[in-house]
Amino acid sequence: MDTRRYRLAAAGLIALAATAMVLVARGGFFYQDDFLFLRQGHDATLSFDYLRQGAFGHFFPGFRATFWLQDRTFGLKHGWAVAIVAVFHVALMVAMARLLSLLFGRRPATLALLGVFCFSGLWLSGYLWWVSAIQVMPAMLLTILAVDAHVRFLLDRRLRHVVVVSVALAVAFCFYEKPAQLLVLLPLLTVLAFSDARRPREVVRVLVRQWPMWAGIGVVVLLYAVAYVTGDFFFETVHPTAGTFVRTVALSWHQGFVPAFLGGPVGVLKHGALGYPDPSRLLTIVDQLIVLGVVVASLRRRRAAWRGWAFFLTAFALNVAVIAWTRSGLLGQGVGRELKYLIDILPFAVLGVGLALLPLRVGPRAVPVPAPVAPRASRLPLRFLAAGLAAACFLAAFGVSAVRVAGFWHDGESAMLGRGIAASRPLPAGPDILYLDQRVSEGVLAAAFQPYQRHSVLLPLFGLDLRYAGQATRLLTVEKGGTIGPRDVPAQTALDPATATIDGQPLAPDPSGAACIDDDADHLLVLPLSAPLPAGRPYLQLDVRVPRRITLRFPQEAAIGDATIHPAERVTPLPVDASGRPLYLPLEDPHAAGVQILVKAGNPVCVRGGHAGVPVP
Question: 302 near 356, Cβ under 8 Å?
Fold first, then answer.
């Protein structure tokens, strides 16, 4: 295929895919975590301390810098976010096209691989949520560039490619930890695709020969590990049982990754901000049969096809095992279907399929390009018909999925909030009240404005500063119909340390009347409420005394899917210092008879009292 026709076809695919993603994304808006990180950037200076702030175990200074810059540029104008996503999407597709043409040459089959990458249903979730896009886009783009430079180093041994890989990996780590999978996948790619080694000793010799590359990557990983270990990024989570782990991996394959990789069509089951795919049982079976048929056909056609599938499955296993181990214990096995966790597999999956189906055009395993031979005239119509039918089915599946996801996105809570904010105006009653002209449900506002928090993370972005219960004389409430206004006094009830229990047994107070624990075992401390709370969204103001900085853990009940997580298995960790400042946090159960605190071994604490309350209706 000549260069001009190839480039025109690739450009057409990229333009069409970028247009489709813009149409899907443009009707949405930001969501809860977007506001949280934007508010943190709003309040901070671009300092080393701010860039090193962790979140949920992540260390991502580039991610933090992006929100700081967003606050000082386009703020809450979602159209700018869509434009940035589109630019990165185009850059990703161009980088992938460059890598595929390097490996497999400029041929129609390479364009087919590019089409699978451009129109995969995996894009339909990972890009719509701004927080996810900021993590995924830069990290994936830099990962593809690192793989490209690695391949070129294997071909010409120029040290500049080592520099490119090292710098790309270092910057990618600033947004996401997932590029660490290159520690496994680059050596694997070297052995499977750029080596004829068959014995272990030969494999070792091939890898040792690439020592400059491993040295550069090793330095970057070491520096990142030191930065992570010396910071406060550890996030304690609930690890799954073996059964939950296996079910999560299985769901990731047959109801998450494979249907989305093949374009769809998938429905959307509401879960979190964007939902996850919910393919029918029939379509799931069809998807698996398609994959099985392609694998069997490739193995019959090429003896070396197993190398591509080995690379594919290794990339899948690495990504999904991390998600299953760190997320499914807390969020349930359904997290395996969330596409924003699976999108990182896409470029490696496309490479794996290419290695299984197509001969390499470079390296020691390269297959010489045969002289063009005109196929039989009788076979041309069949080939074009088969290729056209496959492409039409794939694009139709992607189109159905895109329409469904776009409808979910455009009509969801996020879009409703965006339309409401676009029509917002201050009331004449005062500058600290925001009124949404468009009617927005209380649930939508409650999620985005986060009234559970000590103060609203969103309202200060409008120049408003209303604080929630107990931290100021005014109380932020969200009313039906879209009015956000202050109230003066919450209904409160006191906590009585004198009647506290420890592991179900009475706990004698110290001389000052405080409930104190200081030993080498874990305990469950319960402080009863002096009176029941009325219905509403309760908060807690806790008065504690500690000799040094510790972390208390407050159990929370949470029903996720069909399973209910026991309170002791889901906790909210909250750091407490020795300053004596009151501690505020939300209570999720307004009918609780008391406040539960998990006190870990080595965390000395005295609870002197406190209040729980809800806003007065």
Answer: yes
Helix axes 32-43, 442-449, angle to 10 degrees: 40
Task: Tell me the per-residue pLDDT of 257-294, one tens digit each, with 9 for 90 and over.
Answer: 998 888 876 677 655 545 666 777 788 888 889 999 99
**For the chain, how far is it from start to end, CA to CA, in angstroms?**
71
Residue with tokens 């200060």: 460
| CA–centroid distance for 563 within its chain | 22
Nearest-angstrom CA–CA distance, 583 and 543: 6
Amino acid at 543: D
Distance CA(319)–CA(261), nearest Å, equals: 15
* Rounded (10°) CA dihedral 381, 385, 386, 390: 160
DSSP labels, 122-163: THHHHTTSHHHHHHHHHHHHHHHHHHHHHHHHHHH--HHHHH
Question: What angle in degrees, to the nearest 10, is found between the helix axes of 78-104 and 3-25?
Answer: 150
Is omega for the bond preceding 265 within 30 degrees of 0, making it cis?
yes
Q: How many residues does the chain have?
A: 617
pLDDT at 149 over 50: yes
* CA nearest neighbour of 110 among 5, 3, 10, 4: 10
Distances (CA, A) of 294 to 19, 299, 300, 305, 356: 30, 9, 10, 11, 10
Query: Which residues are CB-contacts of 340 (< 8 A; sequence separation ≥ 6)?
Result: 125, 126, 129, 132, 136, 274
Q: Comparing C-alpha atoms, which of 78, 127, 74, 86 is closest to residue 416?
A: 78
Determine the angle formed by the axes of helices 413-422 and 442-449, rounding to 10 degrees: 90
pLDDT band at 382 (very low <50, low <70, confident <90, very high): confident
Query: Exposed, middle or buried, 506 (CB in 10 Å: 0-12/13-18/19+)?
Result: exposed
**Which residues contact residue 25 at a Cβ distance below 8 angstroms, ignoring those fewer than 6 apart?**
82, 85, 86, 127, 128, 409
Rounded Cα–Cα distance for residues 192 and 360 (Å): 11
In angstroms, what CA-CA distances link 125 with 22, 89, 270, 342, 544?
13, 13, 12, 10, 43
The closest of 506, 571, 507, 558 to 237, measured between CA atoms, is 571
pTM confidence score:
0.75
By C-alpha distance, which of 488, 507, 525, 450 is closest to 613?
488
Question: Tokens 């443009």 sit at which residue?
Answer: 26
- Say how far apart CA 270 and CA 439 lie, in whole Å: 22
